[in-house]
Structures are given as C-alpha cells and as structure tokens.
Amino acid sequence: MKAEWIVRDGRQDLLLFFNGWGMDRRTAAWITSSTPDQSRHDLIAVDDYRDFTLPAWLPAVMAGYRSVDLVAWSLGVWAALHSGLEGISRAAAINGTPFPVDATRGIPPEIFRGTLDSWSDVTRTRFERRMFAGSERDPRLDDVRSRRSSAEQQEELRSIAEAVDLVEAKPASSWSFSKAVIGGRDLVFHPENQHAAWQGTETVRIDDMPHFPFFHLAGWEEVLA
Question: What is the pTM of this model?
C-alpha cells in the first residue's frame, strides 16, 4: 500500500482515508481543498493495493495522535479491514462492503472478473461513466480523476482479486465500521447489496449519490458524524 500525507499541521487527531481501487491522492486532496474549514484532522491517504503491506512508518505515526479515525471508499473498505491496522477510534465506509466479490453483498463475481479481464483505456472510460453517473459534465471531474495508467490499475485489481481469495476465511481487524454511507445511484456496489452487507450497522442512504460520492458529501466530518 501507498500512504501519503495530505494534511500535516500538527493537529491532535489523525484521519486515514482508504481510497478506491485505481485512484490516487488527488481524491483526498480535492476533498480537503473544497472543505478547508470542515476538518480537525491531519490526513493521510492510502491507496495502491498492489501490495497489501502498510508502510513501516505508519503505525508509529498513528501512535502519536490522540485519536485515529478512518474513512474508506469502495474497495478501500475491504482493504482497510485487512490492512492489519489497530487503534482505530471511528470508522465509516462509503459505497463499499467487507465482501467485495459477492453476488448479494458486493460486486457479483462474474462482473468483477469481467472488469479485470477486459480492463483497458476504452473500458476505463465506460467504467468512469458509471462511477460518476449523473456528474459526467461536472467541471470538477478534472480535479479528481486518477492519473494512474490503465495497466497499473489492472495490475492492482488483479492483486485485490488474488488477496480476496487468500484471506476470505481469515478474520479481519479487531475494529469494525460503525457507519456505512450508501449511494442510491451506485452502479458498482449496488445499493441493495450494500444494505445486505451492512445489516446491524448504522447506514445512511443518499438517494442521488453515485459510486463516486464526494460531490454529494460536505467533507470528512459529515461522513464521520
């Protein structure tokens, strides 16, 4: 995994953001810049799940904060649960589940495998249309689109698929998500599957929110509240 500082102002609390598959630091940077007065946290963004090893420096950094909160989006939800992190105070999931490849609680296996096998610049464009559904003409898209190559994204998705198979029967972390935010227009993790996955967990549904949620949320604090 790759972890990068987005905000490092010496605040007392830290927020870890586990990004979606194929994305880069621009997502977290844009959220922070668009809501500059809405967070009390320093911020580290985690992405690139081609290697599921956390940077060695991260646990020591976390130990220096009063509290550590976590927000995860999409496949970052599963990645966060299996990252080996401890000491999480609050955790919120957005448009993702602990069961990333699952017919009724995640992405159906045939769709996941089809995405992996066919991934290219052409299919990436189609996927982004589904991910940003309803926001395709939003000028903010240029600020949040990943700059990683399609080949690198495919390699990452293959690594996720292999890791899901390996750890499926193993316990996840000692902490759990206390809240799940579900987009009613999510075309990747369908909302019905998300509701099925999060039974027993507080859920908030935003009916007009597509898979990319951050044009519909007013910053980190709204997610964690």
Answer: 0.95
